[in-house]
Write a structure and sequence with these properties.
The protein contains eleven helices and eight strands. The mean pLDDT is 98. Helix content is 47%, strand content 14%. The protein is of the alpha/beta class. Bound molecules: acetoacetyl-coenzyme A (CAA) and nicotinamide-adenine-dinucleotide. The site of nicotinamide-adenine-dinucleotide has 26 residues, from helix 1 and helix 4. Nicotinamide-adenine-dinucleotide (NAD) binds next to helix 1 and helix 4.
């Protein structure tokens, strides 16, 4: 099993920037790419300020913080990924867009490199089949926010090799995560269970069962969830939640997974959650 030292992360949004931060702090060389130059510079800024905040809280020495920042290279040129050992893709939750990226990456990275996707729900087998290396394609699903949440869900596609699985598992463990393994079915484990709950919370709001505040308080204080389901949807991104529900609905073929019309309407209105300043709630 080849050792992973250098990691390429594609997508500098919520998840990609968190994964890049986590890996840089744990001593890996990171290349971070985003197709949008503003998103890339925002990612660099937010990773730097988070690392400074970890140092100021005394959770990391000044030297380790400086080393983590040196480990991080942001690039607008995907060709810079030539020598990475693994790519972790964290772009928009669209099978078509991800497949196009996997085809490009397959032509850029060295033959031994692993192509991992942080997808929340999309078939790893289908992403893998767009490449010439399906045995080296895997799902590596971090939870939001990646530096804080303890879990990584690993998804084997139909052709994923034992070597690819073992190297990915070893990497996740070096990042300090607990691992769970899922077969390649829509939504895997976590979102198969979490997203129908979030969708049901939208139905409760849509049909006037209760206010958003009471729906959230019910689950937060009644079942000890750290966030209510509507607050959590804002944290994840309503666009991401809607995309996942569509994949569950199409992939599992049961009407119980149909996205709530209110969730779809919020996304149509650009109310994407915390990242846009407005979702179910308004953020200042
Ligand atoms: N990136 C990095 N660190 C972050 C962060 C972020 N975006 N947000 C918060 N943190 C850190 C804070 O700096 C703080 O660190 P210290 O303890 O070292 O000071 C710590 O997390 C706690 O933060 P706060 O005190 O500000 O807030 P909190 O105690 O309310 O915790 C939370 C915030 C960890 C997000 C917590 O509310 C929580 O666990 N919420 C549920 C999150 C969840 O369920 N995530 C999974 C979503 S599902 C998913 O990700 C899969 C998918 O495909 C959609
Ligand atoms: P986001 O919208 O915050 O960020 C996505 C980033 O990808 C944007 O900066 C965008 O510019 C960039 N991008 C889009 N297409 C690109 C391309 N072709 N090449 C390069 N960059 C491109 O999204 P996110 O919430 O970080 O989600 C990213 C992925 O992680 C999705 O697959 C999502 O399902 C998954 N995920 C999300 C969460 C969550 O809670 N948000 C949790 C786990 C997994």
């Amino acid at each position: 099993m080849a050792e992973i030292r250098s990691i390429g992360v594609v997508g500098g949004g919520q998840m990609g920037s968190g994964i890049a931060q986590l890996a840089a702090v744990n001593g890996f060389e990171i290349w971070l790419h985003d197709a949008d130059s503003t998103a890339l510079s925002n990612a660099h800024e937010s990773i730097s300020s988070r690392i400074q905040s970890i140092v100021s809280k005394g959770h990391l020495t000044k030297e380790k913080g400086a080393e983590a920042l040196r480990n991080l290279r942001c690039t607008s040129n995907l060709e810079d990924f030539r020598s990475v050992d693994i790519v972790i893709e964290a772009i928009v939750e669209s099978e078509e867009v991800k497949k196009k990226l996997f085809v490009r990456l397959d032509n850029i990275v060295k033959g031994s490199a692993i192509l991992a996707s942080n997808t929340s729900s999309i078939s790893i087998t289908r992403l893998a089949s767009a490449t010439s290396r399906p045995d080296q394609v895997i799902g590596m699903h971090f939870m939001n926010p990646p530096p804080v949440m303890k879990l990584v869900e690993i998804i084997r596609g139909a052709s994923t090799s034992d070597d690819t699985f073992n190297a990915t598992k070893f990497l996740a463990e070096r990042l300090g995560k607990k691992i769970i393994c899922s077969q390649d079915f829509s939504g895997f484990i976590v979102n198969r269970i979490l997203m129908p709950m979030i969708n049901e919370a939208f139905h409760a709001l849509y049909t006037g069962v209760a206010t958003k505040e009471d729906i959230d308080a019910g689950m937060k204080f009644g079942t000890n969830h750290p966030m209510g389901p509507l607050e959590l949807a804002d944290h994840i991104g309503l666009d991401v939640c809607l995309s996942i529900m569509k994949v569950l609905h199409a992939g599992l073929g049961d009407s119980k997974y149909a996205p709530c019309p209110l969730l779809a309407q919020y996304v149509d209105a650009g109310r994407l959650g915390r990242k846009k300043g407005i979702g179910v709630y308004q953020y200042s």
